[in-house]
Amino acid sequence: MRAYFLHPSDLRLELKETSAPQPAAGQLLVRVRAAGLNRGEFLRHGLTKPGAAKIGGTEGAGELPSGEKVMGRLPGSFAEYALMDAADAIPVPPHLSWEEAAAIPITFLVVYDMLVQQGNLQADEWLLVTGVSAGVGVAALLAAKALGAKVIGTSGSEEKLNRLKAMGLDVPIRTRSPDFSRQVLEATGGKGVDLAVNNVGGSMFAECIRCLGFEGGLATVGYVDGVMRSEIDIEALHSKRLRLFGVSNKNRNGAQRGVTVQGFTRDFLPLFASGKLKPVLDRVYDFKDLPEAKARMEANAHLGKLVVRNY
Description:
This protein is an alpha/beta fold.
C-alpha cells in the first residue's frame, strides 16, 4: 500500500510503498478514504515522537471489511489502510461525506472534552477562544454556538474574523498579542468569561487568566507559539476560584479516550446527524498532494480543517 512516512528529525513527508498493517485483538482494519491534518503532528514539540520515521496521520474516516463506515482517532491515516482501536470507532452519519467525516474526530473530540466534559459550558455563558480561526478554534466556536453559548474569538486576520462572524462569532478581536482582556471584560459587562480556550500557548496564558470571571475555567489545548512557560496570578486563581486544566490525549490510555468517545457519541453525534453541527473544510487535497496541504497548514493560511482524500 502507499503511505506517507513522517520523519521526526525534520518533519518531512516521504511517500513509500509498504505492507498493510495487521489488526491485533481489539483493533479494526480501516480502508482509509479521507484523513484530517492536525497542527500538533507537524510541530517539533507536538505529537510526533523522536525516533524512526513512521506513517503520519492521527485521524480519518473509512470502511471496515464489513462495509461499515467509521471515523475516529486513526494513527497512520496518511495511508491506504490503518488500524483503529475498536473503542475509538464512531459511526459516520449517512449524509456526511468522507471528507467531512475525516474532519471531525480529533478536533471535535478535543472540543467535547474541553467544553463539555471538563469545561461544563452552559447555554448563555461566555466562551473565549484564542486563535479562533485554527481547526480546534473553529470547531470550538461551532460547538459552543450549538450549545447556546456566546463566543469571543481572537485572530490576527480581519478576513478570517469576518468569515467567522457569519458562523456565529459574537465578538471578534483582531490581535495576535496578549492585549485583549480589556475588550473581553467590556463585552461581558465586566464579569469576564466563564471558560477560555488557550489555543496558542504560553504567550497568551496570563492574559487568558485576566479574562476569566468568578469560577471561570481555562483550557490549555495547544502551544503553537512554542512558549512553554508563563506567569500565573495566584491571587486571581485563589480569589476567583478558577479552574485550570489541560486538554490532551498524549498520555491517556484507551479506556480514558473511550469515555470521551462515548460522551461524544451520545451528546455530539446527534448534532452532526441532524445537521445542527457541521465541520468547516478549508480545502480538500488528493492523496498525492498531501505535502501541499501540510505547507498550507504551516503557512497558517487555512480556516477550518485541511483534509486529504484517498479514493
